[in-house]
Amino acid sequence: MRPMELFTDPRAPSPRRVHLFLRVRAIELPLRRVDLAGGEHLSDAYRDLNPAGTVPALVLDDGTVLTEVMAICRYLDERADGPPLYGNTPLERARILDREHWVEMQGLLAVMDGFRNASPGLRDRALPGPAPVVQLPELAERGRQRFERFLDELDLRLTASPGLAGEQLTPADIAAFVVLEFARWGTGQAPGHAHKAIRSWQARMIDWLEPADA
Ligand SMILES: N[C@@H](CCC(=O)N[C@@H](CS)C(=O)NCC(=O)O)C(=O)O
After folding, report:
1. Residue 14, ligand 1, Cβ within 6 A
2. For the chain, how far is it from start to end, CA to CA, in angstroms?
3. Is 170 near ligand 1, meaning CB less than 6 Å away?
4. Nearest 10 degrees: CA dihedral of 7, 52, 70, 187?
């Protein structure tokens, strides 16, 4: 048996979702730093653990390796004491997963395409992981357009409720918050003046994520 460990580079968007989740849920875990900028995720040692060469990866006591943010957070949510962030009823859980997956598909992938297909430092690395993938400028442009559509839709959804999946902070909000951070530095895109609901929600997110006494 080995102790549970989170392999992570906290600066990258996907690990950041897990770190924000851990903070809100007050869960402490042993961390193992994987240096993305230095290429450590592509080393043989790390790919023995996670062949996809991505972070985060959560290694459980029995050696099971989880490599998807949603699976990692859900597993930890169910194991931890206190109110779950993934909801209390089948409907709450389904709604949260519905929104979180929507953010991944329509928001995260859009920014990822926009960033990875245009960034000079990611030549032939247009997708995460060890296999070479050429950059496609058209895909970068489509990603940027798709992200603008995501912002419009996000604004509509946040006009209807304080959080993406209801009244409370959920992992769907954390995912969207991190996607917006990623877009700001990755493609230089941000909500506009017309996105009033997003702007109010961003202020609420700061309160939710960083309570005054933190
Ligand atoms: N399966 C992961 C994807 C994780 C992922 O793509 N992580 C990025 C960092 S945000 C990574 O490891 N990139 C490695 C690379 O660029 O080669 C998820 O849960 O969403």
Report:
1. yes
2. 35
3. no
4. 90
Q: CA 180, 20, 175 angle in degrees (round to 5)?
A: 35
Write out the two tokens for 130: 């060890």
Domains located in the chain, CATH noted: 5-79 (3.40.30.10), 90-209 (1.20.1050.10)
Contact 23, 72 (CB under 8 A): no
Report how far residue 176's alpha carbon sits from residue 171's, in angstroms, rounded to the nearest whole number.
Answer: 9
User: pTM (2 decimals)?
Assistant: 0.96
The answer to whether residues 117 and 137 touch, using CB atoms and an 8 Å cutoff, is yes
- How do residues 31-89 score in pLDDT, each as one tens digit? 999 999 999 999 999 999 999 999 999 999 999 999 999 999 999 999 999 999 999 99
Please name which of 160, 40, 144, 140 lies closest in space to residue 99, comparing C-alpha atoms: 160
Q: Is 126 in the pocket of ligand 1 (CB under 6 A)?
A: no
Q: Token pair of 78, please?
A: 């169910």
Angle between helices 69-79 and 90-102 (to 10 degrees): 150
